[in-house]
Specification:
Layout (H helix, E strand, L loop, with lengths): L2 H22 L23 H33 L1
Helix pairs in contact: 1-2
Amino acid sequence: MTIASYLNVSGLIVSALAAGLMFYYPPDTPRYTKDGAGVVNWVSNSTEQGKRIGARQRLFSRFALLLLAAGFILQLIATLL
């Protein structure tokens, strides 16, 4: 296998990992009303466990975006070689 093949395969693997992370930890997307105002849902007061879960979701969703970009760049480099 050539270096381009290795880069392409590694880019696909990194992108698949990013897709898996995005499935389990989706990014938080804001929602808006018809008037353009932001929608905020508060069910109850935040707990320590809820704060940890939210922090983990933010971390993994941002890491997934970085992995997706890295996979794209690896495949782009493989195409240009």
